[in-house]
Amino acid sequence: MPWALDNDRPIYLQIMERIQTDIISGKYHAGEKLPSVRDLALEAAVNPNTMQKALSELERNHLVYSQRTSGRFITEDEDMLKQLKKEVAEEQIREFFQKMEQLGYTPNETLSLMQRFTKECN
After folding, report:
1. Full-model pTM
2. Which member of 64, 90, 98, 106 has the greatest number of CB atoms within 10 A?
3. Does 53 lie in the same domain as 27?
């Protein structure tokens, strides 16, 4: 099934975010080999050149690395992966609180709603 990509932002950035999310969520593990550019491009339903650009950027950010004849691998730097996961989570929380503020909720009201929702889910 093709990845959900929109035309409002560069496709390669969305691909980078998707792969980054797959890494920090545990779909791919530290040191694990990524599928080939062609396989990922097929999965995402994008041009292989676009996928190559996204992977090159991830490599420049040290999230993945290449081994000439073996392909691309996820970094083995566990601390880096933990930090990235924390940063992504904090950004999601920041965006959530901004959206709640747009709805007229204060941070404390938002927390109260979250606590009530959490109790209902358990």
Report:
1. 0.82
2. 64
3. yes
Could you tell me the residue range of the domain that residue 95 belongs to? 79-121
Answer whether residue 62 shows pLDDT above 90. yes
Angle at 32 between CA 29 and CA 37, to 5 degrees: 115
- Residues 45 and 39: their CA atoms lie apart, in Å, by 10
Residue 122 is predicted with a pLDDT of 76
* Residue 81: both structure tokens together: 């992966």
User: Are 72 and 85 found together in one domain?
Assistant: no
Whether 74 and 63 have beta carbons less than 8 Å apart is answered as yes
Q: What is the dihedral of CA 105, 25, 55, 46, to 10 degrees?
A: -80
Residues 99 and 58 in one domain: no
